[in-house]
């Protein structure tokens, strides 16, 4: 078996790579985050600006990260250092890699907690949500996250599955998991959309999601849309760079990025199309926030015919999506440590995964009503503090410096060689990555942090 830390580990095909990258991108961010952000952002206005950010800022960055990964062929830290040296630039640029590896480690520690909730809800859905009223559904959720044991056991299960797949390496683990899991996910989601379309509130959903009400387009909505697009495309934390390192030379990065970004966006929109008809049909509030999945939907599943099956399918689908994303969050640190120490990949994955599990326990216990529920870090709960550190600081800075590095410090010739695009596509990409990405991200970063 090829070890992912060796420089010749590769995806067996372009399809396997695309599946893995789509698996990374599509996760809790799309199926849980996108609908609730869209709901809070007033629907169409958020969707429109989100689409703009995905294709104008996200996609050029996706291309930049994939090329850096493939050029360096190492962990994000190793690749950044190597490319900086090759280009005769300061090796301090490896800090982008460090921020990614550390950031992804922090995210996996709490992502796994939420992934655990999803696993627990698969089990809850199996036994049915029948007759659940709005307040009792909220009670089910809040008492679950306030329990000291069950969420941690679920978190352990989720992390265990992630470690198991990462331990098997690019060929043995990641590829098999994603080539099987991703198509299953698409099928489940399309089925759910078809079901939802027949519940009767489909027309209302279409106008909610696609008829923009520009009075709702505030600066805040725009900022959330940018953050959401970064998180959803797995940008700036080394996931995409690590996957690029296993990419064959003959794969066209520009085309692949277009497919990945479209699939990611497609799933987010499908998730919206699956969820909002249910939300409207049962008179739920589209702007309910993070409770949209865990509190509101079970009410609907409990009332609709076939709710046990649909509910179980829905949470299974969310679990699958979350696991393939979690794999890509664990991979950057595993690839760095096995590259640095030469230790067995399985041991490294187990050790780092266990450390992330321990760190995650604090996020779990820090939920409101739980043992550490009153702990506040600069006014944030433990989970929100990690979320804010990564989303508001590491991701915007990482993305901005990646764009600056690729646009201004790596030679134009190196990038042309790496991308092998036609002339006009290259010019458009180069303009976006040199000017539009850094300026837009800087604007967002400054507004998030200082406004
Ligand atoms: N994109 C995934 C989601 O939408 C989460 C994720 C995986 C991620 N890798 C990442 C987010 C790297 C930011 C950076 O759920």
CATH fold assignment: Amino acid/polyamine transporter I
Structural class: mainly alpha
The level 1 CATH classification is Mainly Alpha
What's the number of structural domains?
1
Number of E strands: 0
Strand content bin: under 5%
Key phrases:
binds tryptophan; single chain; Amino acid/polyamine transporter I; mainly alpha; 451 residues
Q: What layout of secondary structure does this protein have?
A:
Blueprint (H helix, E strand, L loop, with lengths): L13 H12 L2 H13 L3 H29 L3 H11 L7 H33 L7 H13 L3 H18 L1 H29 L4 H9 L8 H14 L6 H7 L7 H29 L9 H13 L3 H35 L3 H21 L16 H28 L2 H8 L3 H28 L1
The chain binds tryptophan.
Structure write-up:
The chain has helices at residues 14-25, 28-40, 44-72, 76-86, 94-126, 134-146, 150-167, 169-197, 202-210, 219-232, 239-245, 253-281, 291-303, 307-341, 345-365, 382-409, 412-419, 423-450. The protein is mainly α and 451 residues long. The chain has one domain (14-450): Amino acid/polyamine transporter I. Helix 2 (28-40) runs antiparallel to helix 10 and helix 14 (307-341) crosses helix 15. 54% of the residues are buried. Bound molecules: tryptophan (TRP). Tryptophan is lined by residues 24-25, 27-30, 104, 231-232, 234, 237, 239, 325, 328-329.
Short description:
The chain is an all-alpha fold. It has helices at residues 14-25, 28-40, 44-72, 76-86, 94-126, 134-146, 150-167, 169-197, 202-210, 219-232, 239-245, 253-281, 291-303, 307-341, 345-365, 382-409, 412-419, 423-450. Residues 1-6 have low confidence and may be disordered.
